[in-house]
Amino acid sequence: MNAIVARDTYKVFGRRPERGVARLRDGATREDLRKDGLTAAVIDASFDVREGEIFVVMGLSGSGKSTLIRMVNGLLEPTAGELRVYGDDVVTMNKQQLRVMRREKVSMVFQHFALFPHRTVGQNAAAGLRVQGIPKHECETRAKEALRLVGLKGWEDSLPGQLSGGMRQRVGLARALAAGTNIMLMDEAFSALDPLIKREMQDQLVDLQHKLGKTILFITHDLNEAMRLGDRIAMMKDGRIVQIGTAEQILNQPADDYVSQFVQDVDRTRVLTAGSVMVPPVAIVGSDHGPDVAQQVMRQHRMSRVFVVDRDQTLRGAVDEERVAAAVRDGARTLDGIVDDRVLSVSPDARLSELLPMSAASPEALAVVDGGRHLMGAIARVTVLKALAQCSGTAEADHGTTSRISVPARTEAMAR
């Protein structure tokens, strides 16, 4: 389900802005309108924000990103186009309807904290609730829970001036959480923080989003922040959205030279994931097969070690050629007792930067598994090196084609 939908949305400032929209649709540029005293802040913007995702709008100063977020919560009225929040048309809402939307559906976290200096942390966190007329006891309860979620339990009676910048921003975040809205708008929320605190706040935001399932529209000019936070990213330039995609799509498939130049200095090891660089399987062995089959598979593919999986692709471990050969000599009929369950494994969301030390410490391939320990892929040391050297989003297979020994071909490779 889409929480926010924008279709062909424009915002032009100045006299008779509708004429500016018509001119833009006929091919006029921002500069053409500027000569006539009109400012085209947002031009023909179309995007969807899915429920429960972090959608980042990224752009330089003047790109239109802050204007865009202010149209979403009704602080600015679009000049033309469609803008909906959970299906309700923001463009046609009156003042009362906008107040209800902000109270029940959309909350906002500001760049410069926007705290009341003479009110306590608890009172600041509950400020939005008191405006709604919610009983004092419920306000306090919800504010305390929100402060606990952002790591400020015990600070309820302190004043903002007693807090660090990062802690004050946590109060702003708690205030938005206490409001109980499904959608949170964050306009350059962390840009005023120093780098270390900024990273802590980014980590906390991702953690909270995973726990609470909030829909977050996040505005930033910091590309690394966008890449780190965004499930998807909209890149803006001169009022237009020039590309929407995941961090990896924008990094590896830039839509134009502007995006390409923008991403050229990004630390790709912090963007590329295990899921994007894992290789397809050469071979695996089913846990119900015997050592003779395992030996045959390893000889056929010239492998010294192979993953062992159940029929549902659950990873059981790996076997190596020495143990398999000994089991064959002993006449063993199963792999019992020779499967090594100490296989290094990572989630598909793990960043390449996390894989580097693991890959360097072990000559064996890393297993990529989901939460249920189902084998999704494998990453050999050569695959990590290839990803670093080529800066590619999805590594190609290092070896041949899949061997269909016991489970479907979607199971990933154990490298040589």
Structural commentary:
This protein is of the alpha/beta class and about 425 residues long. The protein folds into two domains: about 1-105 and about 180-265, P-loop containing nucleotide triphosphate hydrolases (Rossmann fold, 3-Layer(aba) Sandwich), CATH 3.40.50; about 275-390, Roll (CBS-domain). Helices cover about 35% and strands about 20% of the residues. It has 17 helices and 16 strands. The protein has a six-stranded mixed sheet, sandwiched between helices. Helix 14 crosses helix 15. The protein starts with a strand and ends in a 26-residue tail after the last helix. Keywords: Amino-acid transport, ATP-binding, CBS domain, Nucleotide-binding, Transport. One of its GO terms (molecular function) is ATP binding. Belongs to the ABC transporter superfamily. It comes from Geodermatophilus telluris. This is Glycine betaine/proline transport system ATP-binding protein.
